[in-house]
Amino acid sequence: MSTRVKICGITKLADAQAAVEAGADALGFIFYEKSPRYLAVSAAAKISKQLPPFVLRVGVFVNAPEELVTRAIGECGLGLLQFHGDEPPEFCTRFGLMSMKAFRIRDSESLKELPKYPTAAWLLDAYSAETLGGTGEKFNWDLAIEAQRFGKPVFLAGGLTPENIAAAVRKVQPFGVDVSSGVESSPGKKDQAKVRAFIANVRQAEKK
């Protein structure tokens, strides 16, 4: 089964279209105002409407009010909700859509939170005291292997780049991978050559 590739922090239509052409399975729109990759719901909706139907639109939220999540689902055609804050399990699963809880992994103790969330998948990101995701920092991939023993699909994130993604896919064999800063020229602006290289290296790693 091929690894799902999610390109996160999309802010421009050209970057979204280039990611789709390169073979991305999912695109992430960040509805968190403190993020350098923040996009208003109306702006994300304009991009979403110009993308092919087979691409999964993912809404990324951090402690968002319920109304914002509901509005983004309706206007942007979201197929997956990704929660990056302190949302309780029942909040993550109340919208009638597939959802994914993100966890900032510091050590094996961090993994104890995972089974509390009956979401469709879990996203494992690097821990940072300063920011909630998009840090470009890597964590110990052995912990991602350990997390898969709980039996849920795992998306690997945190510090992934075109240079290290093949090693990550071969070692962890995750359900999916999620990249943002690792394929950017500046926050919110994707480097399209890096996006192509990243996805090509994922596909290459699957063959070995």
**CATH 4th-level superfamily:** Aldolase class I
Mind telling me the CATH class? Alpha Beta
In whole angstroms, how far apart are the ends?
13 Å
Overall geometry: globular
Which stretches of 5+ consecutive residues score pLDDT under 50? Answer: none
β-sheet strand percentage:
15-25%
Reported for the largest beta sheet, the result is:
8 strands, parallel, barrel
From the coordinates shown, what is the CATH architecture?
Answer: Alpha-Beta Barrel
Structural features, described:
The structure is a single chain. By secondary structure, the protein is of the alpha/beta class. The protein has one domain: TIM Barrel (Alpha-Beta Barrel), CATH 3.20.20. The chain is 30% helix and 22% strand. The chain has helices spanning 13-22, 41-48, 66-76, 89-92, 141-147, 165-172, 192-206; strands at residues 4-7, 26-30, 56-61, 80-83, 98-105, 121-126, 154-156, 176-179, 184-186, 189-190. The strands form two sheets. It has an eight-stranded parallel barrel with strand order 1-2-3-4-5-6-7-8, surrounded by five helices. α6 packs parallel to α7 (192-206). The relative contact order is 0.17. The mean pLDDT is 93.
Task: Tell me briefly what this model is.
With 208 residues, this protein is of the alpha/beta class. It has 7 helices and 10 strands. The model has no long low-confidence stretch (mean pLDDT 93).
